[in-house]
TrEMBL record:
Name of the featured protein: Endolytic peptidoglycan transglycosylase RlpA
Top EC group: lyase
CDD domains, per database record: DPBB_RlpA-like (cd22268)
Occurrences of domain SPOR (ranges): 215-275
Organism field: Sphingomonas sanxanigenens
InterPro entries membership: RlpA, RlpA-like_DPBB, RlpA-like_sf, RplA, SPOR-like_dom, SPOR-like_sf
Domain of life: Bacteria
The organism's taxonomic lineage, starting at the top: Bacteria, Pseudomonadati, Pseudomonadota, Alphaproteobacteria, Sphingomonadales
Length: 280
C-alpha cells in the first residue's frame, strides 16, 4: 500500500499534468500558434484539362478574383471530408493544404478576414478562391458575383483555428493601408490574365456558327455523387469526362440555351457556360 507521502506526490504530479487547461471547459488553453490537426496536401490532379499541383507553400501571397457559394452545396462533402456549411468562414482553393489558413483582403475596400481552407476549387482560370457565403458576408462582398482579392497564407493562433474549425468567425484584421492597397491593385492589373477578370460574367454567350445544338455546362466535379445530385436538381445530366464529372443541361437551340444559361447563373452557378456540339 502506498504511503500518505507517495499519494500526495502523485496528486501533485497529476495537478501538473492539467496545468494550462481551462478547468471549466476542459480544453487546453492556447499557448502556441498551431493546432495539431491532420493536414492534407494531396496528389496532383486534372480538371477541365488543367493540371493542379497541391503544395505546402508557406509564403503563398497572390492577387486575383474571388467568388462565393452557399445553399447549393450545403451538406456536401468537402475535399477533406467535412460537411460544407455555407455560413462557416471557409473557402476552396486549388492547391493549398487542407486545412490551411489565409487572410483574404477585398481590394475594393481593404477589409481583411481570416478564412479556413477546407475544399478544392474553383476550377476556373478566372478565379483564385471560392469563399463560403459566410466568408463573403464577413468580407462585405456577398452582394457581388465576384470581387478582386488578395489571398495570403498565415499562421493564426490556436484559438482562432479552433473557432474557424467549429464554424465560427474571428474578428476582422486591421484594414490595409491605402498605399499598400494601391500596390495590390497594381499587381492585379499587371497580371497577364487580367483580361480574364469576370466583369459582366453571366452575360449571354455567343455560340459559334458551326454548332447546331448547344448545352449549358453548369460545372465539373471530382465527386460523381455531387455531380449527379446537382444534375437531378436542375433536370440535367452528369457524365464522365477526363477524370471528373460534368453537369450539362440540354440540348437546346441557341436561343433556348441563352435563356437556360441566364436561369442557371441566377441560381448562383456563375461559372456556367454554353458549349456546342456539331451534328454529323
Amino acid at each position: 500500500m502506498r504511503s500518505r507521502a507517495e499519494l500526495l506526490l502523485l496528486l501533485l504530479l497529476a495537478g501538473c499534468g492539467v496545468a494550462g487547461r481551462d478547468q471549466s471547459a476542459g480544453t487546453r488553453v492556447a499557448t502556441r500558434p498551431a493546432v495539431a490537426e491532420p493536414v492534407k496536401v494531396g496528389d496532383p490532379y486534372m480538371v477541365r484539362g488543367i493540371a493542379y499541383h497541391p503544395a505546402d507553400v508557406r509564403d503563398y501571397d497572390e492577387v486575383g478574383w474571388a467568388s462565393w457559394y452557399g445553399e447549393e452545396a450545403k451538406g456536401n462533402r468537402t475535399s477533406n471530408g467535412e460537411r460544407f456549411d455555407p455560413d462557416a468562414i471557409s473557402a476552396a482553393h486549388t492547391t493549398l493544404p487542407m486545412p490551411s489558413y489565409v487572410e483574404v483582403t477585398a481590394l475594393e475596400t481593404g477589409r481583411t478576414i481570416l478564412v479556413r481552407i477546407n475544399d478544392r476549387g474553383p476550377f476556373s482560370r478566372r478565379k483564385l478562391i471560392d469563399l463560403s457565403r459566410g466568408a463573403a458576408r464577413q468580407l462585405g462582398i456577398e452582394g457581388h458575383g465576384n470581387a478582386a482579392v488578395r489571398v495570403r497564407r498565415v499562421d493564426p493562433t490556436a484559438g482562432e483555428q479552433r473557432t474557424l474549425t467549429r464554424g465560427g468567425k474571428v474578428d476582422e484584421r486591421p484594414r490595409i493601408a491605402p498605399e499598400q492597397l494601391a500596390m495590390l491593385r497594381r499587381r492585379l492589373a499587371a497580371r497577364p490574365d487580367r483580361a480574364l477578370a469576370p466583369v459582366g460574367e453571366g452575360a449571354p454567350a455567343v455560340i459559334r456558327s458551326g454548332f447546331q445544338r448547344a448545352f449549358v455546362q453548369v460545372g465539373a466535379f471530382a465527386s460523381r455523387a455531387n455531380a449527379e445530385r446537382l444534375a437531378a436538381s436542375l433536370g440535367g445530366l452528369a457524365s464522365a469526362a477526363g477524370g471528373y464529372w460534368r453537369v450539362r443541361l440540354g440540348p437546346y437551340d441557341p436561343t433556348a440555351a441563352r435563356r437556360s444559361l441566364a436561369d442557371v447563373v441566377a441560381k448562383g452557378y456563375r461559372d456556367a457556360a454554353i458549349v456546342g456540339e456539331a451534328i454529323n
